[in-house]
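Exercise 7 asks you to align residues with tokens for two separate proteins.
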Amino acid sequence: MKLELPPDPLSVLRPLVEGVGGADQADRVRRGMQLLATLPRPPVGTTPHEVIHRQNKLVVRYYAPASAAVSGRSPTPVIVVPSMINRAYICDLEPDRSLVGGLAALGHAVYLVDWGEPGPEDAHDDVAKVLLDLLHRAVDRVRRHARGARRGPLPAAHLLGYCQGGTLAAMYTALRPDGVAGLVTLNAPVKFSEGGRFRRFVDGDFFDVEEAIDADGLVSTDLMAAAFKLLDPMGNWTKYIAIDAAAQRPGLLARTLARERWLEENVPMAGAFAREFIREAYQQDALLAGTWQVGGERVDLSRVTCPTMVCTAKRDFIAPSAACLPLAGAVGSRDVTLQQLDSGHIGVVVGSFGPRVFYPLLDGWFRSRNPART
């Protein structure tokens, strides 16, 4: 069903927008709003794959190495761990700008953890449930799938965590290091006192997490969408201008709408998980301090001894570099690589920067860190 907008949806805000960019700017915003409200969204997540594991809402998708790359395929599987608060298809947004598709084309066996959408019955899932049950079972299933019919020990896997998924991947590696061959984090905060705008939004002096979030329910997508809009108020106008600018170029318009689809389709969070993550991470900075207890186990990042690469985006205000880079000094690995990428939080994965720079960077790092044993 198409949303019908009033003749001039900016009638109330027009004076403000005109004050920022003039009457022409206001007209561009209006046209962009009309297009966004009426145009269908393009398909996403179209790279061929096989579902190899399900647990509750979680699904693990397998992307086989491209046939042309089989002779040069990497023996170590790569598990992509995205954020829990967004749809996993950000890693497979478009055929020519797909993180999972790009790595598979380069010869890697790629597995994507799709957390799915929690329901009210999942409200009590905490960080221990996510890491020690859901993610641990997913990693185990990947390792068994990668071994196939062969006998012998299970192969270790590379973990590639993006945003909150990178934080979770680092925590998992600290808790269950044996099955992890290498850890790559992308825009993954660990020093939450440097967490930028979102850190200020949930500051403990102003935000009572126990009062604001019901542990027996879900954090609604409406609340989350409103919070993200507050983090980037001008982005609400610039996206409409971008859509208007792309209107005469079908390919660019489809690409812009694919990103908007992902931004629109938020995922609710389990109340128990949200409470714990905001309190321990953003309010107490417990991860870097080494005081976070998960299922009775202390998360000690120095137990991450596998090769580690920490990647940040220079133009990222969601997970600033100052919040992400300290992981490099916290892990116990002797093989640590730092990469500060000239991109933004999303563009590093789905922009032209991905296939041009980031995917080849990952390919080289993964290949040079294949464990001797499989």
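Second protein for Exercise 7:
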Amino acid sequence: MVRPRIIATDMDDTCLLYDGTMSPRTFHMFNRAQAAGIETVIVTGRSAVYVKDMQLPNFHYAICCNGASVVDLHTNTTILKDGFTREEAEVAWEIFSRYPDAFVEVAFTDDAVIAQKDYDRFESVPLMDYMKRSYRKHLIHVVPDLNQYFFEHIDQVEKINCFRSGPAITKAINDELRETGLFFINAAYDVDVLAIPKRYNKGKVLVKLAEKLAVPNEAVYAFGDGKNDVVMIEAAGCGVAMGNACEKVKATAQYVCGTCQEDGLAAFIEENFGI
């Protein structure tokens, strides 16, 4: 195996345990990797505002909103940026707006926003408790009229997310988004909707970051578990599926490590590279 120069990892159920925390073993492994000159990269569907405020080890970069932006966490600057065009945002929003019972979050450049009506019923959404705590802690804006806010900030849209709104709504929105031909349907779980333009995803942007850092692809190691990690596992020089990953990720990866609960990521790096 080529020694890694970039270790890229998904968050939930990959470098984080099922309760949303990071084990001491994994935490210290990432810090040792940084000290050894290896770039460490969070690759997540979450917006930058979530990542910046989390108690993570000394990660250098974060690929956020499944590729819409890349943040240098050491300098708190955005080094790569993409997002919806106005046309893409208008088309997507017209579709989401047809489903008033959907629980919709919109990630803009500097915040994540939901409507007051959805925030008021948040406790009824079937998410794990740690996700709800994280969501409440890191959410920036709850607005009375999300439609109005959306069009006031339409040039800053990075991600539109609909989660745990029921199988009928989820399927209907996903089907409509696919029919447009504009969007990459990239949710980690079948019970959610995540729409981003086809120009970017976790894999494409990880490759761009490696090129920017002059790191050859064979030295890029990517770890993931969910369906939205498949493109990252495919794009990296070495893709590693967690033991708890879905079958599609495992089938794509070159290696399968232990589960997140077993510190599978840390064990893989420690045992193969002595870090």
